[in-house]
Each structure stands twice: as structure tokens, then as C-alpha cells.
Amino acid sequence: MADEVLYEAEGPIATLTLNRPDKMNAFNADLFSALQRALDAAEKDPAVRVLIIKGAGRAFSVGMDLEGGQTPAQLGVTGDRNRLQHHIEDFLRVWDFPKPVIGQVHGYCCAAGTMLALACDITLVSADCKIRFPSIPIGGGFVSSFWAFFVGPKRAKEMDFIAGSEISGAEAEAWGWANRAFPPAELAGKAMHMATAISKTPSDLLRLKKMAINRVVEWQGFRQAMIAGAEWDTLCHFSDGAREMRQRIVDLGMKEAIKSLQA
After folding, report:
1. 249 in any annotated domain
2. CA distance 183 to 42
3. What are the respective helix, strand and coil percentages of the chain, to the nearest 5?
4. Count of other CB atoms within 10 angstroms of residue 23
5. What is the pLDDT along the chain (263 residues), one digit of tens a residue?
6. Contact yes or no for 102/52 (Cβ under 8 A)
7. With contact defined as beta carbons under 8 Å apart, do 178 and 168 qualify?
8. Is residue 256 part of a domain?
């Protein structure tokens, strides 16, 4: 297994650890690929009934790695849209995964990192973790489409309209973004305890239970809305407002550009 994701299976429980701690587990092409390979391994192992996904170091994931890779302008409208849809499908692989997945979220969980956390069947958070939207408003729809289904349109708009919006793990539990919030020292133990409890149910029943609940949400338009998020985000990337934001970064530098948007 690639070092970008550490894979450990013990009995019926597999743990997948995002392992770019120096980058706070920001997603790049290698991390996306490693995550898919780890999911493949867990899916093929008949002994595994439950997955836990967590992050190494100080964060669950701070979202997309903005260093390297092609920009929307380099990719063009169609290329940018295709890339975004591919990433959404990476996260939907967790949603569709035939075994229950628990997200164990600590530290920082930002932007695209929140999409992975929400795609998990059960999301457990440390009460003090920081759950954030992007600090620079260049896109739109990629992250917020996931949020709208779990916290409702009003709260999704509140987060999305204000750059760098943040809630704590405790607030995430109150909003319905997370199932439970725990003191940081208890999070790992609580996640393992829940995984162990789930693993006592036979695999075929777990798969059918997951499909039954997911189907209800998909009848409400969940999957179509997620895919459409790629198209809305592409439109935002090529808008006049996004060009203004990118120029602000050029003129001020990233840190000062972020400060200029803070209330």
C-alpha cells in the first residue's frame, strides 16, 4: 500500500489513515489514488466488515493541495469540470462503499476534506476540531452541495457565503454534520468502540442496511446534486469574481488576501 494512505486490518475492522502530515493531509493526485487502492483492499478482504478513515498528524484533511497541478485556466472549462467530477466520484466511492465507513475527524477538516468526512456513513469528531470552508472564494458548489444535504440550505449558505467560515466539532454535532463529538482524548477509542459494535452484524445485512438508507437520500437527488457541484464550481472558476480573487492573491500574496476577506 502506498505511503500516502496507511492501511491496517485487524479482524473485522480496517483503518485507513491519510498520511501526508507535513501537508496536513491535503489531497493531491497521489493521495486520491492511494485512497482508492486502500478502499480496494478493504473491499476485497472478506474478513473486514467496517472501515475507519482518519488523518495522521494535526489534521483529518485541509482539503485540496493547491501546490502543483494544472490550474482551471490551463485545463479549460471542460478539463476543469472533468477533474472536479472525478474528485467528487472519489468521495462518492466512500458513500457507495459496500461496508460501513466511520470518519474519525480531528484537528482541521477543511474544504474538500469536509466532503470526505460527510461521505462517510458515520462521522465522529473531536469537540475542538475546526471545520472550515475555503478561505478564498474562487469556487462554489463543489463543497457546498455536500453540506446542503446534511445541514440544510440555510446553514450551507451561511458557511459558503462567508470566506473561511468555521464551526467547531461541538457545533458540527448540533448541526447534524457529525453524529457525535467527543473530547479529543476519547475520539479514537469511541470510533473503535463503534466500529466493533457495528462489526457484530453480518456483512450482507450491513450492506443492505446501508443501501436502503442511501437509496432514500438518492431519491431526494443527492447523487445528481453532487455531480452538478462540479459544473457549478467550474462556472465559478471562470467568473469575473474568481479572476478578481486570483488577482488579489497576486497583488497581496495569499496570507494578506485571506486577511482582506476576514471580518
Report:
1. no
2. 29
3. 55, 15, 25
4. 16
5. 459 999 999 999 999 999 999 999 999 999 999 999 999 999 999 999 999 999 999 999 999 997 767 888 899 999 999 999 999 999 999 999 999 999 999 999 999 999 999 999 999 999 999 999 998 889 999 999 999 999 999 999 999 999 999 999 999 999 999 999 999 999 999 999 999 999 999 999 999 999 999 999 999 999 999 999 999 999 999 999 999 988 888 888 888 888 888 86
6. yes
7. no
8. no
Which of 131, 132, 124, 127 lies closest to 184 in space, CA to CA? 127
Rg (CA), the chain: 18
In a domain, 222, yes or no: no
Taking the alpha carbons of 169, 135, 158, 118 in that order, is the dihedral positive or negative? negative
The helix/strand/coil state of 7 is strand
pTM over 0.90: yes
Q: How many domains, the chain?
A: 1
Residue 233 lies in a domain: no
Q: What range defines the domain where residue 92 resides?
A: 5-204
Contact 142, 110 (CB under 8 A): no
CATH code (residue 32): 3.90.226.10
Given a contact cutoff of 8 angstroms between Cβ atoms, the answer to whether 165 and 248 are in contact is no
